[in-house]
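Q&A log
Question type: sequence-to-structure
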Amino acid sequence: MTVRASNFEIVANNYYATEPWATHALLRRFPMAGYVVWEPAAGSHMMADVLRKDGATVWTSDIENYGRSHCEMFDFLSGHVSPMLTERPNAIVTNPPYGKGNRLAVRFCELALERCAGNVAMLLTAKFDFGKTRHHLFRDNDRFMAKINLVDRISWAGNGETGTEDHAWYVWGPERSGSTGPRIFYEGKEA
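Response status: OK
Response body:
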């Protein structure tokens, strides 16, 4: 398969709303019912709404209001954890901003793993784990437990037209979970 440049215009703050089916794909493998989930790049709450319907308590934050009220306006990449989040969440689940060279996405992953002793799930490009500068997140990280390859492409524009990039969920488990190595799954729009 040839990867070609997208003509998709970069959106301010890397805001790309995640179609509900992509979050359902994660939840088929890793249900979150009963969890306290922090969604730190909540945008218009498309992902948070699916998590709530699955039975999770969702705490939302973002650096901008995208038409939905967040629990707090908060920059996840800042050097502190929000005082409003008094309990550590059971999970952090998000589609983070990628930034140039995926640098913002790497930082989101690092901070999520620092701030959450439970599960962390990040929606990223399917080749995100190929980077040799990311061994600390994957190869050398005992918490890394799964990659869920999305066999359908996401429509970021919300018009049904998909982009040129494939995506996957990367999932890390709880600290000291004794993971026996990561598993690979394949999910799409239909179960």
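Response note: The beta strands are 36-39, 57-62, 72-73, 91-94, 119-125, 144-150, 167-172, 183-187.
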